[in-house]
Fold this protein.
Amino acid sequence: MNLPNISKNRNTLSDHAYHVIRGAIVTLQLEPGQLVFESELGSTLGVSRTPIREAFRRLMTEELIEILPQRGARIAYMSKKKIEEARFVRLSLEVSAFKEAARKWNANDAAFEKAYQQIKGILEEHRKIIDEQNFDRFLELDESFHSAVLELTGNSTLISIINQMRGHLNRMRYLELLETKHMNQLVSEHEAIFEAITVNDEEKTERLLREHITSLEYCTPDLVKKYSHYFQSVE
């Protein structure tokens, strides 16, 4: 496991511990079923046990970590049921949010111009790293794209709920990336969705986003079979 040492100059140590550990869970550096210990992670990240403990609490609320009495903590196994539930929630909430972004979009507004530059930058970097086959960074940029559009709604509650659900879905999406290497397809879909938003086309935005979120469901059975050791044996 290769986790970065946490900088003490950015935000809080617990926030950074949370994001680093969560990222390692999503990209399967910390594998489902693996035991993890506060002291070891604290040493790896260069922080005391307190920030790690606080990060664990947040990850427990997302059901990405389970506390085992007298044994420490365990990375939660992947769950087909949980992934399906997360996909349903994400689809329901993000469609409404993206349609609202399309409805609100105003190219003459300074805030939207700033958002345009931010999102275009994300998409451009997305394109650049495809040849590198950097799946970790690609998934980060994928999240950044969706988060940047969600921010346009100004609905912090909605954003929080979607972010909590993403961890379960993103572990499956990471496996999909490893197996299908469909990065060109995903970036093209992002570009088309964003174009629909910027021309205030709510109907097209909804159709494209639904296709984007559900298009890879066909991979799930094969991935569950191939990576059965990552999944709960009984659901």
In short: The first helix runs from residue 13 to 26. Residues 5-10 have pLDDT under 50 and may be disordered.
